[in-house]
Write a structure and sequence with these properties.
This protein has 582 residues and is mainly α. It has 21 helices and six strands. It is a multi-pass membrane protein.
């Protein structure tokens, strides 16, 4: 097996090696220490992120702000969308101006400041300082008939402050997400390809460990004790992550910004797609054309030949990443329709009810027990926490010894298959649930102030679909991170990682758009007489439609990935992962 190509790459001018002294075994020990510090920072940052998102709708819908459910949901979607769609911005800033180390440090600092807004507005004095006094609800005449129009919802209290804070928080989270991943991989790259692969396994494990800690502890405190304490914990997590990151600086490898070829890529794309428009541009900028002809030799950065080579790599990478978008449509169902389906299955009683925030809990009618809504996501997270170490310590070494370890693209195709089976299982379960509903075999469950008619099937019947979507994460998302990092040109690694996360956000938005489309009159998800229930909807057909979309795009992905791997096996292969698959 050839030596890892990371060792063949020349050191970047301005790259800073660790300051700690190193003996004969020093490099490996300090590289592992640096990687462990990155994993700890990621775990704390994800704990803070899930601590913010888990009960954000409930926080805005509480008596602190009195936002309507629609207003609170829209704010949560804006924050989640920003945390994914702004990822290329943070990657581009790191590539061009800041470098990954400073980009992560500044993003954590912004994260700390923005996250402090939530606990600051969770108590009366803080809300009045930031937002002013809450306006009194206007009193109007009672509606004389059932068909009279409803009064428009009032403007949400403190909306400008909260939206500004959430957008800044989304920018910080997206920048950390796009840069910390590649920064951590930089720390272990000198240890070889296998170390980089294992780093991405444990990086994803750290993400889910942070999610478990947040959902188990923070969500329960927010829902049953107080939002002030519940939102103070994420602030503490970010502060601790920032301290650990600064404390570990002496063992980090830091690289200067290399510049980004994004603008050069756009020029080359314009030149190839619209040659007439490109000629007009050159005619308006003769000096720029002359500089291009002279290969811009006096200026640092990539040459035109390197721009063209990187553009060709980008053209090959993007179709692979784009065909992964339907997988993200399926993946994000576990945070939307899977949860909605679970609310219409029998939910067991777990904890004694606390009067605080009782309207924010799932409560069985006539019972005094509640279960936090956010805990419905734990099944997927626990699966990842169990399977990632098993895969890293047992399965991958065994396949490596037998020379059967699949490539990253082959793992991604396998992940798509498990995502397909997950949504199929969800559709079959929904068919069975509707069978009980149509035979009037229901149990009543009160969620907040809404009464739901649920099927007598236990919510534990959802375990198979959560198990399958968790397995799909291990085979699709983790190798996807590995692929985006290893195949990207060095000067575009931050931007490419940002595009990878951005496309996952696009998949979430497409899934939401499909739900909105099917919720129109005549659609499968249009339930005008259900009052919050989905018993007159055909969500099973929606799941089967998603499965069909996933199946078609999975076949397209296999074809594109096959062409990519065949092209990467040639002598001009760009990536060390393509030349050396072990």
């Amino acid at each position: 097996m050839p030596a890892p190509c990371a060792r063949e790459q020349p050191r970047v001018p301005g790259e800073r090696q660790p300051l700690m002294p190193r003996g004969a075994r020093g490099p490996r020990r300090w590289r592992r220490a640096a990687g462990a510090a990155v994993l700890l920072v990621e775990m704390l940052e994800r704990a803070a992120f899930f601590g913010v998102t888990a009960n954000l709708v409930l926080f805005l819908n509480s008596t602190n702000f009195n936002w309507t459910g629609e207003q609170a949901t829209r704010a949560a979607l804006v924050f989640l969308g920003a945390s994914y769609l702004l990822a290329p911005v943070g990657g581009w800033l790191a590539d061009v101006y800041l470098g990954r180390y400073r980009a992560v440090a500044l993003s954590l600092l912004l994260y700390l400041a923005a996250s402090g807004l939530l606990p600051a507005t969770a108590f009366p004095d803080g809300r009045s300082s930031f937002c002013g006094e809450m306006p009194a609800s206007p009193l109007g005449p009672a509606c004389p008939s059932a068909g009279c129009p409803r009064a428009p919802s009032p403007s949400p209290y403190c909306a400008p402050v909260l939206y500004a804070g959430l957008l800044l928080l989304g920018l910080a989270a997206s920048s950390v997400r796009s840069n910390l991943t590649s920064f951590g991989a930089d720390q272990v790259m000198d240890l070889g390809r296998d170390a980089t692969r294992r780093f991405f396994n444990w990086f994803y494990w750290s993400i889910n460990l942070g999610a478990v800690l947040s959902l188990l502890v923070v969500a329960f405190i927010q829902q049953n004790i107080s939002f002030l304490l519940g939102y103070s914990i994420p602030v503490g997590c970010v502060g601790l992550a920032f301290f650990i990151f600064l404390f570990a600086t002496p063992v980090f490898i830091t690289k200067p910004p290399m510049g980004s070829q994004v603008s050069s890529m756009l020029k080359l794309a314009l030149q190839n797609c619209c040659p007439q428009l490109w000629q007009r541009h050159l005619a308006r900028d003769r000096q720029g054309a002359r500089l291009l002809a002279d290969q811009r030799s006096p200026q640092p950065g990539a040459s035109p030949q390197e721009d063209i080579a990187n553009f060709q790599v980008l053209v090959k990478i993007l179709p692979v990443m784009v065909t992964l978008v339907p997988y993200w449509m399926v993946y994000f169902q576990m945070q939307s329709t899977y949860v909605l389906q679970g609310l219409h299955l029998h939910i067991p009683n777990i904890f004694p009810a606390n009067p605080a925030n009782i309207s924010m809990a799932l409560r069985a009618q006539g019972s005094s027990y509640t279960i936090p809504e956010a805990w419905l996501l734990l099944a997927n997270v626990v699966v990842v926490l169990i399977l990632v170490p098993l895969k890293d310590r047992l399965i991958d070494p065994l396949l490596l010894r037998c020379k059967l370890l699949p490539s990253a693209l082959q793992k991604m195709a396998l992940g798509m298959f498990f995502g397909f089976t997950s949504v199929i299982v969800a559709g079959v379960l929904e068919m069975e649930r509707l069978h009980y509903i149509h035979h009037n075999e229901t149990v009543s469950q009160q969620i907040g102030e809404v009464l739901y008619n649920a099927a007598p099937l236990s919510i534990w019947w959802q375990i198979p679909q959560y198990l399958l979507i968790g397995i799909s994460e291990i085979f699709a998302s983790i190798p996807g991170l590995e692929f985006a990092y290893s195949e990207a040109p060095r000067s575009m690694q931050g931007a490419i990682m940002g595009i990878f996360f951005c496309l996952s956000g696009v998949g979430s938005l497409l899934g939401s758009s499909l739900v909105a489309l099917l919720s129109l009159p005549g659609g499968w998800l249009h339930c005008p007489e259900d009052f919050g229930n989905i018993n007159n909807c055909r969500m099973d057909l929606y799941f089967f439609l998603l499965a069909g979309i996933q199946a078609v795009t999975a076949l397209l992905f296999v074809w594109i990935a096959g062409r990519y791997e065949r092209a990467s096996q040639g002598p001009a292969s760009h990536s060390c992962f393509s030349r050396d698959r072990g």
